[in-house]
Amino acid sequence: MRWENLTVDPAGDPARDAALFGADRVTTRTFDTPEFRGITFHEIRARSIVNRVPGASRMPFEWTVNPYRGCTHACVYCFARKTHSYLDLDTGLGFDSQIVVKVNAPELLRRQLASHRWHGEHIAMGTNVDCYQRAEGRYRLMPGIIAALRDHANPFSILTKGTLILRDLDLLRQAAEVTDVGISVSVGFTDAELWRTVEPGTPAPERRLDVVRTLTDLGIDCGVLMAPVIPFLGDHPAQLRATVRAIAASGATSVTPLVLHLRPGAREWFMTWLGHHHPHLLPRYERLYAEGAYAPKWYQRRITRQVHELAEEYGIGPTRAGMPRRITAPEPQAPAAPEPTQLTLL
Question: Which end of the chain is less packed: N or C, by CB atoms within 10 Å?
Answer without folding.
Answer: N
